[in-house]
Amino acid sequence: MRILHTGDWHIGRKMNGLDLIDDQSYILERLMEKIESEHIDLVVVAGDIFDRANPSQRALKLANDTLYRINITLKKPLLVISGNHDSRERLNYGSEWFKATDFYINTEIDNAHLPVTIGDTDFYLLPHIEVLEARNYFEDDSIESHQDAYDKILEKINSVLDNSKTNILIGHLYLSDSIASDSERPLSMGLSEAVAEDTFNHFDYTLLGHLHHPFAVNSTQSFYSGSLLKYSFSEWKQPKGFRIIDTKEEKVSFIPLEPQHDVVVYTGDYEDVINETVTFKDKDAYFKFELSNMSYVTEPMSKIKMIYPNTLELKPLLEDRASELTTVDMTTTSDEDIYQSFIETTLDRDVTDFDKSMFKSYFLGEPNETD
Predict the structure, then answer these.
(1) pLDDT at 250 over 50
(2) Which of 20, 105, 179, 213 is most exposed, with minimal Cβ within 10 Å?
(3) Domain that holds residue 357
């Protein structure tokens, strides 16, 4: 069986105020193409289909159209769980009659121990779980962390495992020692959210969502698909795509996808950017610039956007010049010399005629002012 493992679509996401719905539509179209060309038998979506519990109408339509095409048009069995960004009620609506077309959705602890059997493989759909939710469900006040919660849930699941089959768990959680980015919303406030990988030792594969880096964990049994797009500038160096699990060949592969717009962070000099001394592969990428020598520039963002129209963030680099500071004897140095020294030291440039006129207009005292 060839399983396509994806997740963290975050449909409806915005980045620095920019609506990414067109980028998401583009990348989901590329995913559709890969489902066909890679001869996929089944698709897993490991949570966070939406970015918020109340998505826009456009986000809803894109999600519904995509899931419909996978399941009905392409006729692929589809397994979905809710993530910490999803509304359970919204996802779970219609889940009972969806089963008629091999579309299985789980959003509740109560169904996590019930396998979805497809061929010789049992899938266990374990949605995002809150600690308090598990404590109330099991009526166990000793559950104080995500680890406690998952230990209790897995105890129930492990009791029904059929070891003669391939067993796959689908989850949305944070594995211990994984790499996080700025885009993932914390699973809890004030509670430990990490879960040890050996919690899932009874499974042949653990297919996860929540962390956006596909190589957030180094494992031969547990895998994150990662997000389809870069959703923050902290992700700009991360590969994006999906995984294919071939249970017959016992092989797991990561397949990268090219986005409509890349995300780029550049640190350097303003003049190099504005004069295009440095060049970038895609001028239409979403840029974050961190630049020095901008203090004398009026409206630097508008000037940079003339070259790189999708610049989303511009930060000045504040240079540490403490080691270059010198002491000036105010009694023997003229005001004009002090002003000139200030310009040269702090702005790293020569004094211009404009600077001199400003000095004469605002700083030059009357001839006998200090007499």
Answers:
(1) yes
(2) 179
(3) 322-362
